[in-house]
Write a structure and sequence with these properties.
Blueprint lengths: L3 H6 L8 E6 L2 E5 L5 E9 L2 E10 L4 H16 L4 H17 L2 H14 L4 H18 L9 H32 L18 E6 L3 H25 L6 H4 L7 H7 L2 E4 L1 H15 L5 E3 L7 H20 L2
Parallel strand pairs: 5-6, 5-7
Antiparallel strand pairs: 1-2, 2-3, 3-4
Helix pairs in contact: 4-5, 5-6, 10-11
Length: 311
């Protein structure tokens, strides 16, 4: 039988794999490279087979022996431990592919094939997108109740913010009434759309690094205006709900920040949910430099606009 000391000190042999036996079919293979691998030799269905148990020292002697005993129990029950391992690996790969985001995409495709109304599909997309930031990469089979509860609470908060923004948007439109001049180039003869602060960069991280200080500076300046014009005719233009952080403003939907695909996805989500046909964007605000703003606008023009045109 092997010992931990013997395993630690054994040396590799150039051009040859050394096999050390621990009994019961358990072997430690020492490769010429120095790698030490646990293997179990066994017979099943009159065939000699080998089961890989892992690499030493990640799998220690005690662990390897426990794996050997588990395999022997499977054999005693008429099961092939090697086949069971392959099934577990296949199920793991399948589980990793069946994420919340992947299943959500399949559901949307199914509804579109079934010919569901655009409004119905837009609503489904909106609801799924509320949960995707929290559950998107998680395998469906592994999602537990506490995770769902957290996602529901966050989705409820974001949903309330978005509903509040929509109500404000609708109220402002009703107050303003119809346009003075018809715009036949827009559906319905009127341009309906929100104002958004947008920062585009090559990656989400780069965009956030630019937008974070710029948003806080913008908010500081906006609060100064609120104080200065609190009792003037301009108060209505600056006294509207606004989150105190970039994360909050992104959740509200008033700030769209990220790489081109992130920005495209968010514009599409808002367009589908709000039913808008127009977007007014602030591409320079707060303490953004001219260089940062121009880079963002150029990337928006080249990578985002083509997708927006097709919406």
């Amino acid at each position: 039988m092997l010992t931990d000391t013997a395993i630690r000190v054994v040396k590799c042999t150039p051009g040859k794999t050394v096999k050390l036996s621990d009994g019961g079919g358990l072997q430690l293979w020492v490769r010429p490279s120095g790698a030490k691998l646990w293997n179990l030799a066994y017979r099943f269905g009159a065939k000699q087979k080998k089961l890989s148990l892992g690499q030493y020292p990640a799998i220690g002697l005690k662990d390897a022996r426990e794996k050997r005993e588990a395999a022997k129990k499977a054999l005693a029950s008429g099961r092939d431990p090697g086949q069971e391992k392959q099934v577990r690996k296949a199920n793991a790969r399948l589980s990793q592919g069946n994420t919340f985001a992947a299943i959500s995409a399949e559901l949307i495709e199914k509804k579109e094939r079934e010919g569901k109304a655009p409004a119905t599909i837009a609503k489904i997309k909106w609801m799924l997108r509320l949960a995707t930031p929290f559950l998107g990469p998680r395998p469906i089979a592994e999602i537990n109740a506490p995770e769902v509860l957290v996602a529901l609470r966050e989705a409820e908060t974001r949903g309330k913010l978005e509903t509040g923004n929509i109500d404000i948007f609708k109220a402002a439109l009703a107050k303003r009434g119809g346009p003075e001049v018809s715009k036949p180039e827009f559906s319905g003869g009127v341009a309906i759309g929100p104002l958004r602060h947008i920062v585009v960069a090559e990656t989400d991280e780069e965009a956030l690094a630019i937008a974070e200080p710029a948003a806080l500076k913008h908010l500081e300046e906006l609060n100064w205006l609120r104080t200065k014009h609190a009792n003037s005719e301009h108060a209505e233009r600056v006294n509207f709900p606004r989150a105190a952080t970039l994360e909050g403003m992104r959740k509200e939907g008033t700030f769209i920040v990220g790489c081109p695909q992130t920005v495209i996805d968010e514009i599409r989500r808002q367009t589908e949910y709000l039913g808008t046909n127009y977007l007014l964007a602030y591409m320079m605000f707060g303490n953004m430099t001219l260089k940062q703003s121009m880079a963002s606008m150029n990337l928006f023009h080249s990578a985002v606009m083509p997708a927006v045109d097709r919406m």
